Amino acid sequence: MKSWRFFAELKRRNVIRAAIFYLGAVWALAQGIAQLSPSVGAPEWTTRWFLIAAAIGFPFWIAFAWLYEFTPQGLKRESEVEARSIPRHTGRKLNLAIIGVLTVAVVLLLTDRFVARHVDETLGPPIAENSIAVLPFVNMSAEKANEYFSDGISEELLNLLTQVPQLQVAARTSSFSFKGKQVEVPEIGRQLHVANVLEGSVRKSGDRVRITAQLIRAGEGFHLWSETYDRKLDDIFKIQDEIAAEVVKQLKVRLLSAAPRVRQTDPKGYMLYLQAVQLGRQNTPEAFAQSDALYRQVLELDPRYAPAWRELSRNFTNEADAGMLSNSVGYARAREAGEKALAIDPNYASAHSGLGWIAMAKHDFVNAAQHFERALTLDSNDLGVLGNSAAFLQAMGRLREALSIQQALVRRDPVNVTALYNLGYTQRVMGGFDEAIITYRRVLALSPGYASAHYQVSVAMLLQNHAQAALAEIEQENNEPSRLIGLPMVYHALRREAESKVALARLITRFEKDWSYNIAQVYAFRGEADKAFEWLDTAVAYHDPGLSDIVRENLFDKMHSDPRWLPFLRKVGLAPEQLAKIQFKVNLQP
Q1: For the segment 311-322, what is each residue's pLDDT rounded down to a tens digit?
Q2: Which residue from 396, 341, 318 is spatially nearest to 586, judged by alpha carbons?
Q3: pLDDT tens, 200-238?
Q4: Closest Cα to residue 358, out of 319, 317, 311, 320?
Q5: Any bridge partners for residue 229, and if so which?
Q6: Domains of the chain: total
Q7: How would you class 119 by CB atoms within 10 Å of its CB: exposed for 0-12, middle for 13-18, buried for 19 or more?
Q8: Do 427 and 454 share a domain, yes or no?
Q9: Whole-prediction pTM value?
């Protein structure tokens, strides 16, 4: 009986309503904090400690509700309230408050579930069980200069695993972006969207090498397998094959064909090859010269090592594109080296892709299509093959198809500055100037001083009629040809004609042969059609590879209505009806 009276007193004093209101408010606030914490950068434990504090405060709230009453005259002690209507008045207000907080809590709950489901759908499919990232192996050698060897071993393992169709392998530039950073494996797995991570270390001493490899389940961070290989340098290829085979075994991948094998060569030559690859990526005249010399040493030791021929061909193409070699010399050397790689291995996808690029630069689109199709048939997952194929689609004016591939490449390899640069160019020529500028800003954030990135930003700004901003960009361009191409256009847009003419004269004096196509671009932008066509004819005479861009380049937009435009395109084999006859399709793998 006493308990019933106590319960009735609790009810009369609105303590029960106050308790329900408190719990409802805590529930609503907890949901709000949980949903907002990630947006404001609050730590994960914020909600947990809020609930602990709320639990501690609950008895004090109950005591407050027992002792005090809200009246029209304000807060009073319960003993001072005489009218029975006052508790009823407070009760009605508490009822409304309870309905309010419960409504907010339900809305937050439904919103949380909807948003979570929407985010899951936006993120796409879950992480595949057979996905893996190969991190750069740590150089444990006494000589820090041997880092090219540990990086090279890591990259060769990555390339080897990429040849297993059942595996989804994170791209090299994305995996290597974690080099030297103290990032936990679960976070790496989350960022690269992979379920597994292969890491390790390399120690080389004389003709001995010790390689430690470990396969880690990214989500939980526990080891699936680890092994240490202490062998002679002559066994380096066997070690890589064994590691790749063990990874396939541990991930329970059932091979549909023979396991891929590392291309073997002279071990000493292989060391030189790995060093040459790393040097070639520096994109400086000095590094290219050293890289070329090392590839030649490799080929003296093993003239039939196809990768060395292919990478030497890539060097020559890059040197020509950067103005370090003349177009005629650079592309002739590149084609010769690429053909030697293909003669050794007719099924070398990368070599086909390289020759396709050279054929495209020479405006031989029929031959280019054949090489790219063959490369895609041999290895449709090779990011370099896909990137070159997208550029080919671009050159044929099929910009939406090219954009789709380039966006997919950036999703697969989000820190690859070359892929980002190519995406930015497609966005720019399609008229997406703001999108292009954002993309090129990402390029420069990842690689400050990246050749021609400031130039591309400047052109996008010029096409938006932001000439002063374009000037600030082109003045930051470190690549001399790109800077000299941009300056006369910017000065013209600013109506500083005397400076525009001087800058254009300097461009012609310095780069008449190798950049004649770009000189035509400048004249086209300046509205001087006669001069533009004159320099386009010069570009044809000099076999300028830049002509392959003419169909898509919006700096020539002013000339499209000129009666000479279509006849010129027909002369170089790039008229719409000529391109329509070229059959080429890319089936992008998910």
Answers
A1: 999 999 999 887
A2: 396
A3: 999 988 889 999 999 999 988 888 899 999 999 889 999
A4: 317
A5: 211
A6: 4
A7: exposed
A8: yes
A9: 0.72
